[in-house]
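Please go through this chain and its backbone structure tokens and walk me through the local backbone shapes. Keep your notes short.
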Amino acid sequence: MDLLIKTLCPDIHLVPALGDKIGDLREKLLKLTASQVDALMSLRKQKRLIVEGCAGSGKTLLAAQLAREHAAAGKKVLFTC
């Protein structure tokens, strides 16, 4: 009976597609934390900025968002890291 079940109904292992995994990770990485949103709100009022922080604190994420907003508003943007 076991042989018959194994033959007719083998185990199936479903693995999510790599693209789905990457999409989920990208979405998590691109979400701003509450403190980052607060920082972004105050940074919007500044004409020039120097942003400092430890690795992984979200500096580049904030800067990229701010640059996108300025570019969409037709402003000139120079983004350097």
In short: The CA atoms of residues 26 and 70 lie 23 Å apart. DSSP finds four helices and no strands in the chain. The chain has a mean pLDDT of 77.
